[in-house]
Amino acid sequence: MTPTATNGARSCAWLLDDSDLQREIGRRMLSGRYDVQVFGDGATLLEALGAGGMPDVLVLDWHMPNMSGLDVCKFIRETRDAASLPILISTSTGGDDVAEALAAGANDFVHKPCPIIEFEARIEALLRNKRIHERLVEAEQRLRIEGEFRERFMGMLAHDLRQPLNVFLFANHAIEQAVASANVSSLLAIQNRAANRMTRMIAELLDFTRSRPESGMPIERRVVDLEAVARSVIEEMRIAHPSRYFRLKAQGPCIGFWDRDRLTQICSNLVGNAIEHSSASPIDIDIAEHSEQVELAVSNVGTPIPITLLPTLFEPFRRGRDAKHMGGGLGLGLGLFIVQEIARAHGGTVSATSDAHATVFRVLLPRGQPGARI
Q: Is the pTM value of this prediction over 0.90?
């Protein structure tokens, strides 16, 4: 099978050798399978490359007057990497160090004379690796484009969904002020809860699209008191859940360089999760300093999380798939995933344990430094 470049044409091999005889031998050896262009000196080859020449592989003779093949290789490697332009260096002497050629940027090395079957096999191996690299680059570009498209789409969708929801909530509030009927108020309360749940789902989707595999959530650090953040969240939860009992305990100064809004999300998601998966038991929120770290622990008594679910508890959309095992729920299953991503963006970790005594979620956060991007 004739080797082809990625555009369907035959692969192009450039051959550099100062010997007329060796150039002709090389051209004949390769012309049956490749489009071959030969050069008698390194300067001419570099000029052709600088003018826009696009070879698929280079075969360079090591020893030549003025500019050696090794010098040409080093020069090319300043602008072209070994994956995009493979280089095979050849020599007719036996004293040259293979390690020196590879250190200069060559992909492979052969001694002349080289059997044609070995010569072609080495070149084809280089071209095969080049084609694999090109496919990987194309796949990466497609994934990046698709990811950017999905993020723009989710952003537009969230924006468009929020507008009618805000109108809905505003109208409900106005009706509540104007109507005294308990029956109507009850119906409006149901609608408000549904609209607020949709609002939280939209916020979770936006956070999901902003998360990056290499860094987690984008964060803006400033001096934050985690105890104050937790107290604020608990106050909101008491209003929303007046029948529940919350206990906050803090030990030591719990101050660090964190993103306050993101830490509020962590506390709100974990406390909300504890409320949802417990009945009347108190919710305990414990904050403690540990040298350069601060720990937040949220615990409740309730049905233990099945041990089979613990390893995948922080995966996205997990709750939606396992709702029947975890007490139902109407969220997207992104709450715990978002907690993990925010902790990771701060250089921290999150973990969970669950047994008949309690279910505990622990977040460890390094105190960080001003302007730090861990």
A: no
Is 246 within 8 Å of 234 (Cβ atoms)? yes
* 12-114 and 222-366, same CATH topology: no
Q: Which residues contact 70 (CB under 8 A, 6 or more apart)?
A: 60, 62, 89, 100, 101, 104
Residue 299 per-residue DSSP state: E
DSSP string, 240-278: H-TT--EEEEEES--EEEE-HHHHHHHHHHHHHHHHHT-
CATH class label, 222-366: alpha beta
Which segments of the chain are extended strands (E)? Answer: 12-16, 35-39, 57-61, 87-91, 108-111, 222-225, 246-251, 255-258, 283-290, 293-300, 349-354, 359-366
Dihedral, CA of residue 152, residue 154, residue 156 and residue 158, to nearest 10:
-150
Residue 106 near residue 87 (C-beta atoms within 8 A): yes
Assigned fold of 12-114: Rossmann fold (3.40.50)
Q: What is the pLDDT of residue 213?
A: 63
91/95 Cα distance (integer angstroms): 9
Please confirm whether the linkage preceding 282 is cis (ω < 30° from 0).
Answer: no
Q: Integer distance in angstroms from the first to the last C-alpha of the chain?
A: 51
- The answer to whether residue 319 scores a pLDDT higher than 70 is no
pLDDT at 7: 52
Higher pLDDT, 297 or 198: 297
Mean pLDDT over each residue of the chain, to the nearest integer: 81
For 274, the token pair is: 């504890």
Position 322 pLDDT exceeds 60: no
pLDDT of residue 8 exceeding 60, the answer is no
Q: Are 294 and 229 in contact (CB under 8 A)?
A: no
Do residues 108 and 88 lie in contact, with contact meaning Cβ atoms separated by under 8 Å?
yes
Mean pLDDT along residues 58-71: 88
Residue 317 contacts by C-beta under 8 Å, 6 or more apart in sequence?
332, 333, 334, 337
Q: What is the pLDDT of residue 295?
A: 96
User: Is a pLDDT exceeding 80 seen at residue 170?
Assistant: no
For residues 81 and 73, the answer to whether their CB atoms sit within 8 Å is no
Residue 44, pLDDT > 70, answer: yes
Listed by start position, the domains of the chain span 12-114, 146-210, 222-366
